[in-house]
Specification:
By secondary structure, this protein is α/β, with parallel strands linked by helices. It is built from twelve helices and 13 strands. Strand 8 (200-203), helix 8 and strand 9 (224-228) form a beta-alpha-beta unit. The termini are far apart.
Amino acid sequence: MIDAAGLRVMRAIADEGSFTAAALSLGYSQPAISQMVRRLEARTGTTLVERVGRSVRLTEAGAVLARHAGPVLSALDAAEEEVAAIAGLRSGRVRLMAFPSASATLVPKALAMVKAEHPGVTITFSEAEPRESLAALRAGECDLAVAFVYEGTDLGRGEEDLDPFVTTPLLDDEVLLAVPHDHELAQAKNVDMAALKDETWIAGCPRCRGHLLQLASTAGYVPDIAYETEDYVAVMGLIAEGLGVAVIPDLILKTVHHEDVAALPMTPASRRHIVAVTTPDLQRVPAVKATLDALVASAQASNSKPSKAKR
């Protein structure tokens, strides 16, 4: 009902004492000021200005608007400045979530890039598996999620409706077989999954465990899973002690390695696709877009580095 332009006019009339002087102070014509006052009176349903000879004075209702105009217009100016700062990346906030191996590899470099290029942007980060991060994104508790999906499955795995989301590919992560260094297959150039039916297995996160079951099923057997842990430092320790074998994505092997563990390509080849997920609206927010670009750059840099695991 009451717009900012109307409030500015009421404050100018209160300060200047006439339509003509108010028009000069605002850079409007006198008829334009009169028209704006009439429009505001029509919207409020009451008289706001009383004409007294060549001067004017505010009615009680007009004085109320003039009195509130200062704080309201100051708040609007502050809001405009904050929005301009966000649009210009002088400020802004991004809530980022990523799964553990990405938080140790892709995320730190991306955060450093944003901090260097846009020091006014604040990024908060928390770790979560894809199911949790996608749920947080849907609930409005997250702006950008780094998730993964294994070949042959969908990102939501039937758990999430992905229609509201947009995904940006980051990298394809090869899944390798990790065995003890003295295992009979440790020197092989490639290992057929079907040759591993008698092995004891170590499984990781729920998605990783599901992927192992799928690989083994395709090869014609059910894997003997004796150990389950989402801590890949523990996985590497178990393998090094000869307690089992595991399938481990290469991104993990870039940061978690053990001199007594060998990593080997498998047949059939297996990969997981790592993606950044957000919404169409959030993708247009400058700070979110800057963080997304940094994740893409970090993934490109990571993709060019070999893992430290023995091959």
